[in-house]
Amino acid sequence: MIRLYVPHDLAAGAHLALDEGQSRYLSAVMRQAVGDTLAVFNGRDGEWRAAITTVGKRGVTLTALDSTRPQHIGPDLDLIVALVKRGRLETIVEKATELGARRVRLVSTERTNADHVRLDRLRAIAMEAAEQTGRLDVPEIAGPTKLDRLLADWNPARRLLFCDEGGNAPTVLDAVTTPGSWGILIGPEGGFSPAERDHLRALPYATPATLGPRILRADTAAISALTLWQAAVGDWR
Amino acid sequence: MIRLYVPHDLAAGAHLALDEGQSRYLSAVMRQAVGDTLAVFNGRDGEWRAAITTVGKRGVTLTALDSTRPQHIGPDLDLIVALVKRGRLETIVEKATELGARRVRLVSTERTNADHVRLDRLRAIAMEAAEQTGRLDVPEIAGPTKLDRLLADWNPARRLLFCDEGGNAPTVLDAVTTPGSWGILIGPEGGFSPAERDHLRALPYATPATLGPRILRADTAAISALTLWQAAVGDWR
């Protein structure tokens, strides 16, 4: 079943004029024709079955038929990730979407040597991953902030799990025992600086955790931490 | 600290003539010179500190100085993975190495539409990932077998976790409660066929498990399942 994220409001009989990319995908790539049906969602109105009503030079239009799933949003989980190399950052966004993060927030840290980041590209990856994984929303991708700034503005009601290989941190399953609003912070490949680690460890809402005895790349750490969080207190229980 | 996997036996004073690729990596990429030290391991003799003794046209030679870690091997965990697209298969091999799988075994299933697989390339990825993650062994990459054949030859003393989205499977944390020898089987993106699923469900040593409410790509499923296994009964406890 083809699934598309659309910006339009969804209701029975709503007409949806798709953009050029989605029109080309449906007609040229997936060889869909007038009368074929697919699933659409917009992050607000649940999932709808829609039929292709026109395929023309000006694009593809759909008509929404009926609601197939009510709107649902997963746990209130943010992934905060230091800017890492482009390929790994794209993997992280795809996987965070599949693993049910509600938002991905990019940060720069002392040991981040980030080149520029293509937010439009990351958002397209999140949208495509949401379509594929069956979510009814697309995670927000928030542009880079400095870690200091992010922590200065942090709502202390949201807990923060950070992966800290230094010393005696508990496992994620031992560190994450209560549901609610959380953020998971993944540092750059070079790790946090000693000053950043001290700062994080002193925050009352922050919990360190270890991810096993081997050194993990940032994308692996992000995927593993999201998985364990979902298994511990999220929608994998 | 640079770490290299080498085929040579390691003992104090052993001379190691590196191959062309590793020689070039040390001299041209990492700009190492005579007297610089690095870590080497061979999967048998633990980790050793070694010094560069010559850098020449015929390559780089090292001399092993002293043992820094005794040989250690992680849990007896195999990842069995259906052939998926090249990029995702390469991700799976890299991540299985970081996440401590002892072997990666490739299988073809009814819904696998595999093109050929480059075992040499997958083995190079496993070696590089082992160097980076701090392991003292490189996971074996076993070439493709048919799933039927693999199961016909299975040692029933090894348990098998397979990810089954159909129906009422328990979570991985509920399904994996005893340590020992395990395999984790990840199907192709199209899933197992009904016949394959029935076959797997009937095996006395096999346990189905679910990976949450969303559809995961094969690489995500592999990483998540390995992570949960390590957290439940492996070396992440």
Please describe what this structure looks like.
Two copies of one chain form a homodimer. Chain A folds into two domains: 67 residues, Hypothetical PUA domain-like, domain 1 (Ribosomal Protein L25, Chain P, Beta Barrel), CATH 2.40.240.20; 157 residues, SPOUT methyltransferase, trefoil knot domain (Alpha/beta knot, 3-Layer(aba) Sandwich). Helix content of chain A is 31%, strand content 27%. Chain A is built from seven helices and eleven strands. In chain A, the strands form two sheets. In chain A, strands 8-7-6-10-9-11 form a six-stranded parallel sheet, with helices on both faces. In chain A, strand 3 and strand 4 form a beta hairpin. In chain A, helix 2 runs parallel beside helix 3 and helix 2 runs parallel beside helix 7. In chain A, 38% of the residues are buried. At the A-B interface, helix 2 and helix 7 of A face helix 2 and helix 7 of B.
